[in-house]
UniProtKB/TrEMBL annotation:
One of its GO terms (biological process) is methylation. InterPro entries: Bact_Chemotaxis_MeTrfase, Chemotaxis_MeTrfase_CheR, CheR_C, CheR_MeTrfase, CheR_N, CheR_N_sf, SAM-dependent_MTases_sf. It comes from Oxalobacter vibrioformis. It is an enzyme of class 2 (transferase). It catalyses: L-glutamyl-[protein] + S-adenosyl-L-methionine = [protein]-L-glutamate 5-O-methyl ester + S-adenosyl-L-homocysteine. Residues 282-302 are annotated as: Disordered. The keyword RNA-binding does not apply. Pfam families: CheR, CheR_N. S-adenosyl-L-methionine binds at residues 88, 90, 94, 127, 152, 210-211, 228-229. This is Chemotaxis protein methyltransferase. Keywords: Methyltransferase, S-adenosyl-L-methionine, Transferase. Coiled coil: none annotated. PROSITE patterns: CHER. Its EC number is 2.1.1.80.
Length: 302
């Protein structure tokens, strides 16, 4: 069972007592830690996901577990707590209208050195691999001058992404020639699985990055930033702050790709719409020049 389909029915008798106070406490902790806002309707989902952490750590009630977590008595548990509460739904070539735009942008920049992409909420890897495939096709090479950095707050999904192994149903909608070119079929115990080819995996570097943190270990400048279907979990001030930190990491003509239900127009003056859910810098001079830039909240030079 995946995290995504694990919520219990409201009337299911509960293994652990779970009060609205416990829910609110968890909601406030994950908001502070990851910026994720959880609606009241997520109470059952939260119960089922954190109940698993109680089982794994041996605690018998939510109150004690949360006291220990907040009291700094289980430093490592924060990672599992956070991983448990993220929603990682993704797919290959999701929101497919973005990929021809990316390909076109890359073709225009052929001969300009490395084409750089930051995939900032990469989940289990389907998004960065889709980007890598499109860029191999745009440069007509399995070793294109491309560098993709793929990040997520959730350390479990990053492991899955780096491994690049998927069940065949995940790629069933992919064109056969793409599938043949970019994936290997599993044999024996791996039958029914596919693995992204080494060349594709070599184009992507994975790192844990919490978009809420002040110091991102990220160096621009980027030709494209993908930030899709993660801002929906953040409130508007948080979205605005993140966007203002993306701006100096973009190349002056860089593109920012957003999710289908994410509208940044009323959140930022740094970016303007350049197509459906695609943005570019309002003022290209706000982007990075040719030199590498790191993003920290205090100063782009530190
Ligand atoms: C719904 S998935 C979207 C995946 C992919 N971008 C797509 O559009 O298919 C959202 C991802 O955002 C990640 N996420 C949530 N909060 C985050 C944060 N504060 N910093 C970085 N990633 C975060 C989650 O772990 C999850 O993998």
């Amino acid at each position: 069972m995946t995290k995504e389909d694990s919520s219990n029915n409201l009337r299911t008798p509960k293994e652990f007592d779970f009060t609205t106070g416990d829910f609110r406490r968890i909601r406030s902790l994950i908001y502070k830690r990851a910026g994720i806002t959880l609606a009241d309707s997520k109470e059952e989902m939260v119960y089922s996901r954190i109940a698993r952490r109680l089982r794994a750590t041996g605690y018998k009630d939510f109150g004690t577990y949360l006291d220990r977590l907040e009291g700094g008595k289980m430093e490592n548990e924060w990672e599992s707590f956070t991983n448990a509460l993220t929603t990682n739904l993704t797919s290959f070539f999701r929101e497919s209208q973005h990929f021809p735009i990316l390909a076109e942008h890359a073709r225009k920049k052929r001969g300009d050195g490395l084409f750089t992409v930051w995939c900032s909420a990469s989940s289990t890897g389907e998004e960065p691999y889709s980007i890598a495939i499109i860029l191999c096709e745009a440069f007509n090479s399995l070793k294109p001058p491309v560098q993709i950095i793929a990040t997520d707050i959730d350390t479990n999904v990053l492991k899955t992404a780096a491994n690049g192994v998927y069940t065949s149903d995940k790629v069933e909608k992919m064109a056969q020639d793409r599938l043949k070119k970019f994936f290997l079929n599993g044999k024996g115990k791996q039958a029914g699985m596919v693995r992204a080819r080494q060349e594709l995996r070599d184009l992507i570097t994975y790192r844990q990055v919490n978009l809420l943190e002040n110091n991102w270990p990220i160096r621009g400048p980027f030709d494209a930033i993908f930030c899709r279907n993660v801002m929906i979990y953040f409130d508007k001030p948080t979205q605005g702050k993140i966007l203002s930190r993306f701006a100096p990491l973009m190349k002056p003509d860089g593109l920012l790709f957003a999710g289908h239900s994410e509208n940044f127009t009323y959140v930022t003056n740094d970016f303007k719409l350049a197509g459906k859910t695609v943005y570019k810098l309002s003022s290209p001079s706000a982007g990075a020049s040719g030199r590498p830039v790191e993003n920290t909240e205090k100063s782009a030079d530190t």
